[in-house]
Amino acid sequence: MAVSEAGNGRGVTLDAVARVAGVSRATVSRVVNGNPKVGEEAKRQVERAIERLGYIPNPAARSLVTRRSDSIGVVIPEPPGMLFGDPFFPRLLRGISTELAARNYQLVLLMPQSPEEEPRVERYLAAGHVDGALLVSLHGEDAMPAALAARGIPVVVGGRPPGGEGVSYVDVDNVGGAKAAVAHLIRAGRRTIATIGGPPDMSAGTDRLEGYRQGLAAGGLALDAALEAAADFTQEGGAEAMRRILAARPDVDGVFAASDLMAAGALQVLRAAGRRVPEDVSIVGFDDSSIAATAEPPLTSIRQPIEEMGREMVRLLLEQASRPGSVPRKVILATQLVRRRSSEGGPKR
Amino acid sequence: MAVSEAGNGRGVTLDAVARVAGVSRATVSRVVNGNPKVGEEAKRQVERAIERLGYIPNPAARSLVTRRSDSIGVVIPEPPGMLFGDPFFPRLLRGISTELAARNYQLVLLMPQSPEEEPRVERYLAAGHVDGALLVSLHGEDAMPAALAARGIPVVVGGRPPGGEGVSYVDVDNVGGAKAAVAHLIRAGRRTIATIGGPPDMSAGTDRLEGYRQGLAAGGLALDAALEAAADFTQEGGAEAMRRILAARPDVDGVFAASDLMAAGALQVLRAAGRRVPEDVSIVGFDDSSIAATAEPPLTSIRQPIEEMGREMVRLLLEQASRPGSVPRKVILATQLVRRRSSEGGPKR
DNA sequence: ACAGATCGTGAGAGCGCTCTCACGCCAACG
DNA sequence: CGTTGGCGTGAGAGCGCTCTCACGATCTGT
Questions:
Q1: Contact positions of strand C to protein Cβ (< 7 A)
Q2: Which fold has domain A174-304+337-343?
Q3: The domains spanning B14-57 and B71-172+306-333 adopt the same CATH topology
């Protein structure tokens, strides 16, 4: 009964509702938009008419005059390695979606699959389809944040943009997390601690490397370039990096990998090389993804509040959108060490 | 130089372009929309003006008159277990996104986080924000497909809708895949083959169970309810199911799990119970997700063409949207057995 | 040479909504 | 009693675009 006659809503206009309710379009509009300056009686009539006709406002018409779309764009370029096997994006999207839903905003997902597609995405965002944009997972000197900002589109970036500041962003405490991981390894009695870093053109890579170095320094251990190997966040990359480290420093007894996937790759290589984990070598990963719990042995890892990151990005964006010209802001979320078997054992502390 | 003066595009209207180009609005509109009935000279002038002003059409205004939005909605309700640790959604989204991008459509992602939010989503879709909707991963008798169809919104479902037919859908060959998995186990010499099924209210669950049964029948093996345990696609659920099976049938020598995650859980339980994999028990999973390759031993699994599924869903949807009232169609995509160590060994064949 | 077809172009009518402004009403004020 | 001031309401002007229709110019056939 709620939904009714004329194919419910398709084609029912404000005007039709006004006629049925015996009021003017303006009054119906007020009721629909919750404007308080409407009489009791008129309001009742309008509500009944809306119900009866199954009226749903035409978003295009509304958007045309309000110049808002009540939706935001989420841009996720495709770093193929990261997307798979890592529930990072689903979780981030969930956080974003939750916060948006609570504010009655919609989410337009844009996945440029190659740099060539970026202009298309940029154009789309610039067209006013969305009230703002969330950019995630930028490589190198991505020009998009700046380009969008120049066009006056509110932007918030997920993860510290490598290209420098000048734009709002939300990030997890990569440095602190990595540092905590290393401290944990040192506490476990490890003294020859290697790291498998992420790509040098992503801040998640460089920041975790920085944290690793700070961790060593804090523990009074010396740096050694032979103990640092960069990879691409993938399992295969992690395995490859582990091989290099093992070749250069066979005496390695601790490994901090900047992602669980890479840690898993390292695990396989270590095992193949006859090293026992955690007896001979302790490993700590990053992300606390499902693979960490699944691996054998389960991986100690650094948990990052991904959903919260998504939510915070939305808050920042909408705040910024509502107050144009506000100064860029950054939010850093704390990480947390999750202990599992891969870092147990080891020598006495 | 490309982008220019007035803050590039924001606020530049068709009319402004027309004035600069010295033609009428209609002509500019024709050029923008690729209408061939435009003279060479006029076209050149218009293109130059567009370039100079950085004109981008206002999507709301366009949508208001064309009654199309050039975007489609993708509804992903949140079955928390499946979302994590399983790159299913990212891959599906990627397939969808690829196909949409090729046709210049946009993707609006809707993630109702609870059944209470579904009306909101339905309302949104019904408002004409999108030209059609893709629904994924339905549990039980989800009313949404029917409700949307009733409102005249083109719908395509991903995975056979449990509630029956009457709506277009794309699915992978779950029955065939499961059957192939069982056949593979039989070929490996296994004779006491259990299955860890998915939720009975999801077609991916029931269809794979059906395939398992067909596989046993085809191999001349008898069914045994004690060899069938349902779970929820999660690792923990898989572990739990494995324990039940082990308790009832300690002689089990083959396991077909309806997801890799559950297979991984089973693996841990088997190992904890002193069973060697694959020497004592062979395991085959489903999905061929990253965890399959990561597990120790790596899991034989059934690969499903997830990206292709996404693409096909889009094709079906747009076809349906362009030809209203067309009859619902279903598309079933083939699966493929991927052999890994978890099903090697075993007794002589 | 003229009728008719063809082609490029412009004028103008909306699409469905929001929002400003003005108006009529009635209570309260001096 | 006339005036001021809310308050609820309606009229109407757009928002920027598409698309139909009509019109003048050029082309074709006889």
A1: 7-12, 14-20
A2: Rossmann fold (3.40.50)
A3: no
Grade residue B50 by pLDDT with cuts at 50, 70 and 90.
Answer: very high
Q: Which of residues 11-30 of B touch strand D (CB under 7 A)?
A: 11, 13-15, 25-26, 29
The separation, in Å, between residue B40 CA and nucleotide D28 C1' comes to 22
Domain B71-172+306-333 CATH (choose: 3.30.565.10, 3.40.50.2300, 3.30.360.10, 1.10.760.10): 3.40.50.2300
Domain boundaries, chain A: 14-57, 71-172+306-334, 174-304+337-343
Q: Do A294 and B289 touch (CB under 8 A)?
A: no
Whole-angstrom distance, CA of residue A343 vs CA of residue A256:
10
B26 CA from C3 C1′ (Å): 30
Best CATH choice for the domain A71-172+306-334 from the list 3.60.15.10, 3.60.110.10, 3.30.420.40, 3.40.50.2300: 3.40.50.2300
Residue in B8, B53, B64, B86 to test binding to A, most A beta-carbons within 10 Å = B64
Structure token digits, residue A340? 């599992």
**Helices B174-187, B203-218: inter-axial angle, 10-degree rounding:** 40
Q: Which nucleotide is nearest to B63 (CA to C1')?
A: D17
Rg (CA), chain A: 26
Say which nucleotide is closest to residue B67, CA to C1' distance: C15
For chain A, positions 134-153, list CB contacts with chain B under 8 A.
Answer: 150-152
Using the predicted structure, report yes or no on whether residue B83 has a pLDDT greater than 80.
Answer: no
Considering only the C-alpha atoms of chain A, give the largest distance between any 2 of them, rounded to a whole number of Å: 86
Structure tokens given for B2: 């490309």
Confidence of residue B201 (pLDDT cuts 50, 70, 90): confident
Model pLDDT, residue B218: 97
Cβ atoms of B154 and B131 closer than 8 Å: yes
> Order of strands across the sheet with B330-333?
A330-333, A168-172, A155-158, A133-136, A71-75, A106-110, B106-110, B71-75, B133-136, B155-158, B168-172, B330-333
pLDDT computed for residue A151 by the predictor: 85
Mean pLDDT of B310-328: 91
Cβ contact (<8 Å) for B10 and A294? no
In CATH, what is the architecture of A14-57?
Answer: Orthogonal Bundle (1.10)
Instruction: Supply the pLDDT for residue B219.
Output: 96
User: Is the pLDDT at B143 greater than 90, yes or no?
Assistant: no
Indicate the average pLDDT of chain B: 89
Q: Which residues of chain A have pLDDT under 70?
A: 1-10, 79-86, 138, 140-141, 163-165, 345-349
